[in-house]
Amino acid sequence: xxxxxxxxxxxxxxxxxxxxxxxxxxxxxxxxxxxxxxxxxxxxxxxxxxxxxxxxxxxxxxxxxxxxxxxxxxxxxxxxxxxxxxxxxxxxxxxxxxxxxxxxxxxxxxxxxxxxxxxxxxxxxxxxxxxxxxxxxxxxxxxxxxxxxxxxxxxxxxxxxxxxxxxxxxxxxxxxxxxxxxxxxxxxxxxxxxxxxxxxxxxxxxxxxxxxxxxxxxxxxxxxxxxxxxxxxxxxxxxxxxxxxxxxxxxxxxxxxxxxxxxxxxxxxxxxxxxxxxxxxxxxxxxxxxxxxxxxxxxxxxxxxxxxxxxxxxxxxxxxxxxxxxxxxxxxxxxxxxxxxxxxxxxxxxxx
Length: 352
Ligand code: SF4
What we know:
By secondary structure, this protein is α/β, with parallel strands linked by helices. It folds into 2 domains: 5-67, Orthogonal Bundle (DNA polymerase, domain 1); 73-336, Aldolase class I (TIM Barrel), CATH 3.20.20. Helix content is 33%, strand content 20%.
C-alpha cells in the first residue's frame, strides 16, 4: 500500500475476541466489535465512513488509526463447468490462487494458506514452485471476502470453505486458526464447522489440537498405503509416517455420523493397483474414515499420468467391498488449471 495504510492497525484478520480487546483500549463496549465484524465480513465494507451504526466519534478514531485491508482478484478465470479461479496479488507482490466450485446448492471456496508450499509432494504443482512464506489471517480471509462479495452480487452465498489451495495449513496454525474463527463466527461468515474443511498432508502433532479447538472437518492426504511409496510421493512421510498419521486420524473426536476424510490421488501405475486398494482398506478397517478418490490431473512436465477409468472403478470397488465409504470426486476446473494440485505460484508482481 502506498497511502500510508500499512502503518495503521489492520482490523481484517483479527478474531472477535481480539477485536473486542483492541476496542476496549478506547473504552469501547464489546458489542462494537460485533458491529464491526458484521460490517467487514457480512456487508463487505472497505472503509469506516459507511458504518452508520457506529458513533461518529468511533468512526473518526478508527479512520485515524486503523484500516481494513483487502485486495481484488488480479485475474478471474471461469471454467466451462462454472468453476472460477482467482489470482490474488498480495501487498508485498506475492500471489496466491483460490478456486470457487459451484455444485448444486453449494458454493465451495478452496483457499490458500501459504504462498507456495514447503512439502514438495511429487504430484503437486504448488510444491514444485517452492515455498515463499506463510499467509496472514487477513490474507486468508480476504479470499473468502472476495468470493462472498462476488456471490452476493448474484444473490448467492458462500456455503463451504476448504483449506485445500496452496500450502499446508497445519504449518501455519496461528493464522489459519484466526481465519477459522472468523469463518465460523456468527458475526463473521457464519459458516458451520462441518462446512469448513482443513486438509493436511498429515502434520501429526497439530491434527488433534485443531480438531479439539474447532468443530471443523478434517481431511488428510494419504495417497499411498505403504510407508515406502508414501515417502516417495510425500517426503513429509519421513517425518510423520503413515502409521502415525492414521493413528492420529483415528483419535480425532467426531460427532455422530461424521467421518475424517482420506484424500487419495490415483496415479496411473504408481498407487492404483488392486494390491494398493486392498492395503488401504486394511489400513482403515473399523475406522470412521471415508476415502475421497481423486484422479490425478497431469500438468506439463509432470512425471505422472491420470489413471484409466477402469483402474479407478476397480480401486473403488475393492474399498467398498472392504467396508470403506468411498467417494469418487469429479474433476472440476481442469481447463483453467484449477483442479486439485494444479495451483502454482505466479511470478512476483509490483505493488499497486
Ligand atoms: S499437495 Fe498440498 S501439502 Fe503437498 S506440496 Fe501440494 S500444497 Fe503442499
